[in-house]
Amino acid sequence: MRMKKFMFSLFLALFSSFLCDALGESELWHSTEIIQNSKDTKDLQNRGGLIYLKNNKVPFSGTSVSKFNDGQINLFCKFEDGSLKNFERYWNNGSLQLKMEIQDYQLKPKSNRREFYESSSSFLLVPPQESLNVSNTNLQLQALMSPYKLLLQSHELRIRVINKIKSIPEMGMQILEPFGQVGLQLSLETEEFYRIIDSINEKGLPQLEIFSRASTPKGAMHVASIVQSEYLRLNEEKKQTKINAQVINLEKLLKKNLQDEAEILNKIRSSKKLFDIAYVDNEIETINETISSLSHEKLNVMLQLIELRTQLRSILQIKTRFNSFRKDSEKEYSDFKLSQEFLELEVISKSDRVKSVLDQIKDLEDKRSNILGPEDKNSSTETSPVVLEYFRQIQGLQESFIKAIRAKIENLSDNHKFLNSIESEIQISIDRTKKEHFQIVEFESELKEKNRKLYAKQKFIDQIQSELNQIQLSKALQSNQHEPLIKDRSASIPKLPIENNDKSIHEILLSLEIKQERMGDGFFGSFQYFYKSGQKQLDGMFENGVPSRIWTSWYENGKKETQGRVVDGNPEGTWKKWYKSGVIMSEGNWKNGDLHGYSITYHENGKEKTRANYRNGKIITD
Q: What is the pLDDT of residue 166?
């Protein structure tokens, strides 16, 4: 049973995958000259199952082609007296994909609707000259065309067209007949008897085309003409309605804004009675000057504070170094040598008192050195009265030096406190002055806002009055106005009917109704399918729309894959399948679409894998 399902699913997969895919191009039985003289498949029409060229009354005999975007042939067909005889489709690399030689087959229409006729009329959109320039893109032109297209497609216009058609009794059936089948009740309200197509013509201008359909040539022409004329009337009515509505709205708007203008003027007069505007301006100027002066003064104080804080920070760092050399913090200034570290600060080294003490110390040390000599310069054991006196004086001056440094540091700290207090006082003055400034500016802002509103109202009133004058002038000169949408082409009586099936012949040939392993009743012919590499993939026959006779498939490497006989679309007799290497994979016997008889499968090394016997699709167990 498993073997039966395997073989049958294989058969279905082969046909459904290959037949549903598509069609191909020629195997060189046609020449380049034939290709060049072939018709475009898109120009073919299906009338009652026979193929015609558009605007031609004789069934088509000859060849047709379709091409990919790059110019490669996609589809090649040969017709005789309106019937398809040869059919080929190609891959996009130019190799053959599908080939069919057809003995008997008609491309049947999908519906039983009668033939109908199509006519058309058109409008051109000619924008003002200033809007036509080289920078205009198709998208911009489409945007210009959009409101006109919407009106042409509107339900309002459709109702007007229907009412117009109904006013001519003989036209109703001329239009409706092709859209219905026998016994159906139809109406103009439910049927699409005209459509609108937009495009850009060869001159680069937007074009709106009206395509109408009817069962008679005159009916098609009348519909296209009625749609065109009713649109012109509706468009003119809408323009007049829009102009009248604009006038009413502008007059209402003008009245409202004149009232607003009077109210603003009254508020300004009342405010001027309470305040002297000139005084307010002067006061604001004075306050601004005060704020500027205080801010400048505050800036100077802040700069001094920054400098003082930097100096005090450096002093603190030097004190920290003292503490690393001395254990007794109470005597941190008693060491003259350590105190000299403060001289690296410019604010201390340039102090008059410090400089004076240093100069005296240097003078005494020079005198003492002259008496002692370099070797005993630092000795304190010298017994010379003069030297001892110098030594005592130097020690006293060193103490004065330490005191001078301490005094300078304290002075810097006091200055820092003083400047902090000054900064706070200045900030209080600034805040108080700004508050006064805000109160005066707030009043002035109210007056300015009222004046601004007054100016805006007056400008808006002028604009409204200008628009009203322009509308009145337009009415007076209406005959000379430029209308962007102009009548381009009037409808004419069509000579021949057009195809009435939903799909074009081009679409039908690309699908050829190949579905569920069937080509449709009445199809007789051969079927060959190829890989993109050019290697044949499938070969077989159809009889009366179903697979028949011997069917063979191949792997892309050229090795045979399956082979067997088909009767009425079902496998019959012996069917075989091979591995890609060419070694047989399975073989079995079929009858009326069921496994009947032996069924054997093999390993890829050729050794037998399974063996079973079937009767009418059921396995026989001994």
A: 77
* Residue listed under structure tokens 């089948």: 181
How much helix, strand and coil, in percent to the nearest 5, is found in the chain? 50, 25, 25
Cα 536 from Cα 44, distance rounded (Å): 30
Burial of 279 (0-12, 13-18, 19+ CB in 10 A): exposed
Closest-CA residue to 74 (of 506, 383, 614): 506
pLDDT band at 559 (very low <50, low <70, confident <90, very high): very high
Taking the C-alpha atoms of residue 377 and residue 55, their distance in angstroms, rounded to an integer, is: 133
Amino acid at 95: S
Residues 6+ apart with CB under 8 A from 413: 312
Q: Report the distance separating Cα 280 and Cα 440, nearest Å.
A: 7
Which of the pair, 303 or 335, is modelled with greater confidence?
A: 303
Q: How many CB atoms lie within 10 A of CB 205?
A: 17
Give the model's pLDDT for residue 552.
92
Note the pLDDT of residue 180.
36
Specify the CATH architecture of the domain 11-113+500-570. Answer: Alpha-Beta Complex (3.90)
Phi and psi, residue 377, nearest 5°: -60, -40
Tell me how far CA of residue 271 lies from CA of 191, 197, 263, in angstroms: 71, 65, 13
Q: Domain limits of the chain?
A: 11-113+500-570, 117-245+483-489, 278-476
Question: Contact, 348 vs 408, CB < 8 A?
Answer: yes
Would you say the pTM of this structure is higher than 0.90? no
The region of weakest confidence among 100-109, 202-211, 545-554 is: 100-109
Binning pLDDT at 50, 70 and 90, where does residue 332 land?
Answer: very low
* Helix/strand/coil for 557: coil
Q: What is the DSSP string of 136-161?
A: --HHHHHHHHHHHHHHHT-HHHHHHH
Q: Which helix (H) or strand (E) holds 389?
A: helix 385-476
Higher pLDDT, 129 or 43: 43
pLDDT of residue 603: 93
Q: Which residues contact 470 (CB under 8 A, 6 or more apart)?
A: none
